[in-house]
């Protein structure tokens, strides 16, 4: 009976040693992961900031294009009037 008790304790000691070794391996791996995660989070924040700026710029460009389109339509109508082109009343209400 004493023999099996000692053998049981030996397995427990081996298991404890394996657990300690696994934890020792895990600590630097976890530290590396946390550093990389922080770097990734920072880069993601920078990308989101940059994307926000790009979206604002595209919004401004879009508004300029809409304004230019309105100006071109106005100029086309004025040039047409100037050269005597008459737009039918039905065409004016459709636009």
Structural notes for this entry:
The protein is mostly helical. It has one domain (2-94). Helix content is 92%, strand content 0%. The protein is built from two helices and no strands. It has helices at 2-82, 89-94. The chain is rod-shaped, with a radius of gyration of 37 Å. The relative contact order is 0.04. Mean pLDDT is 88; it is low at 1-5.
Shape: rod-shaped
Number of strands: 0
How confident is the prediction overall: mean pLDDT?
Answer: 88
Sketch the topology as an H/E string, one letter per element: HH
Tell me about the largest β-sheet: none
* Domains (count): 1
What percentage of amino acids are in beta strands? under 5%
Radius of gyration: 37 Å
Counting DSSP H or I runs of 4 or more residues, the number of helices is 2
Low-pLDDT stretches are: 1-5
First-to-last CA distance: 101 Å
The secondary-structure class comes to mainly alpha
Helicity level, as a percent range? over 70%
Summarize the structure.
With 95 residues, this protein is mostly helical. It has one domain. The protein contains two helices and no strands.
Question: Keywords for this structure?
Answer:
95 residues, single chain, 92% helix, mainly alpha, 0% strand, rod-shaped, 2 helices
Q: What are the SSEs and their pairings?
A:
Layout: H1 2-82, H2 89-94
């Amino acid at each position: 009976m004493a023999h099996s008790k000692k053998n049981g304790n030996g397995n427990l000691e081996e298991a404890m040693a394996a657990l300690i070794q696994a934890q020792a391996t895990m600590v630097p791996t976890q530290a590396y992961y946390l550093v990389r995660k922080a770097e990734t989070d920072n880069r993601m924040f920078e990308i989101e900031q940059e994307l926000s700026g790009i979206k604002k710029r595209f919004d401004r460009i879009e508004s300029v294009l809409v304004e230019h389109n309105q100006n071109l339509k106005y100029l086309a109508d004025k040039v047409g009037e100037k050269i005597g082109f008459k737009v039918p009343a039905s065409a004016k209400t459709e636009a």
